[in-house]
């Protein structure tokens, strides 16, 4: 019970756990954007890859996802009051 009442630091364990799905989710979304870009630019991808410049899209989206998903989760968790209600009225 004493650990549940401590509110001094952000819940970093949640952020660390969400970093992995954030990386892969962001990478998949970026590859989807790359498919749309390939359709507009008429770029023909190699037969074993889904899009041209697959790794550039995947790493860029992955880095955005590894920062964005844990950041939003920690921000939302810190925004709540200890009583369980949010700051919004």
Give a description of the structure.
By secondary structure, the chain is an all-alpha fold. The chain has a domain at 29-67. Helices cover 67% and strands 0% of the residues. The chain has three helices and no strands. Helix 2 (12-41) runs antiparallel to helix 3. The model has no long low-confidence stretch (mean pLDDT 84).
Question: What is the total tally of β strands?
Answer: 0
Taken as a percent bin, the fraction of beta residues is under 5%
Unreliable stretches: none
Helix content: 55-70%
Q: What is the average per-residue confidence, as pLDDT, rounded to a whole number?
A: 84
Structural class estimated from helices and strands: mainly alpha
What general outline do the C-alpha atoms trace? elongated
Largest sheet, described in full? Answer: none
Alpha-carbon distance between the two ends: 28 Å
Report the total helices.
3
What Rg do the Cα atoms give?
A: 19 Å
Which sequence of SSEs, written as H and E, runs from N to C? HHH
